[in-house]
Amino acid sequence: MSSAPTQEISKPHETVISVESEGSRMPPRARIMASAIDLFRQQGIKGVGVDAIAEAADSNKMTLYRHFGSKDDLICECLKQVSERREQIWRDLEATFPDNPLAQIRGWIEEAAECIFNDRRGCDLANAAVELKEANHPAFKVIVDAKKAHMDRLTDLCRQAGVKQAEQLADALMLLVEGARVCSQSAGAEGPQQQLKRACDAMIAAYSSD
Amino acid sequence: MSSAPTQEISKPHETVISVESEGSRMPPRARIMASAIDLFRQQGIKGVGVDAIAEAADSNKMTLYRHFGSKDDLICECLKQVSERREQIWRDLEATFPDNPLAQIRGWIEEAAECIFNDRRGCDLANAAVELKEANHPAFKVIVDAKKAHMDRLTDLCRQAGVKQAEQLADALMLLVEGARVCSQSAGAEGPQQQLKRACDAMIAAYSSD
Prior knowledge:
Two copies of one chain form a homodimer.
Chain A: H1 19-22, H2 28-43, H3 50-56, H4 61-67, H5 71-96, H6 101-118, H7 124-131, H8 139-160, H9 166-186, H10 196-208
Helix pairs in contact in A: 2-5, 5-6, 5-8, 6-8, 6-9, 7-8, 8-9, 9-10
């Protein structure tokens, strides 16, 4: 349980679909979602209104409301798409490192470390949870379901890797990754997020020596 | 390096100063800050306007602007006060566990675990960083300075506790705590934040066995 993956893996989740470059080929609904995901990420869910989203998507408010009943609906659909991209990362890792659960785990950590290095905006799902304080906001179900699926996948991989206390290692790794993604926003360039991979290595080693 | 602190320690940082109960004894500036910190925490920095803050403080917008030049100034002052409360926790832990750096570290972890258990709102400083996307917002300096001071204190305690790789352990513990505080907002009641203390124990053990 020590070799780190060295193969290249694709990174579909961080690909911002540019409305300007691809807009003409994308239908209105997809354009609106691409603009919304991008603007929510850059300016925050509460910092952007539907007018700005419609304009960025080269569309209009009426079309936006025809496809999404409300801003809240649009938020939920965007978060589902973000979640689906995360699921795709896991599928890509599985395809890249078949029958090597530890390499898949390390690939996921590598991905997170690269995101932190390239972009200090953190996790769209966690950020949405921070911004949306209303406990009954429909987005919370999307966020919690996505995080749960993520945890289940990670726990299953820890189990496949032969870790006896698989749930504990998975929880600890998730805390480290989530912590790094929030520190990249709050702790300055030299914050503890820089040590994410090293901290994960120490945690994996601690749970592999049983 | 194994005993956990059992003594009671005070928790000044989570004490919400109620304007209703103490308002009559507090001067206007303090009332406005108490209301702002509370409302920012409940509804988000962008979710609350100065009118609502002035009203909650039993004051008015003119008084608010006389004490704080702008909403941004008020945000900065509030975050400085939150940071000061965090510093006070460290001082209390030092007074409670003098000459026992590991007990101080464990006391800090215990505090974080209690906050997660009692309140899913997370860290006010980190949340502000998530909400305020403008890179040049003056609050970022306050947030980054506070996180840096926090890291320095934690690293120093790890060093005093005889940990050889003190910086690495401090970074890892901070990632776990920050991760737990964001997961308490995003991962549902059964999320990995529930395992914060266990994960910190594993990390402390990993760095103590050198």
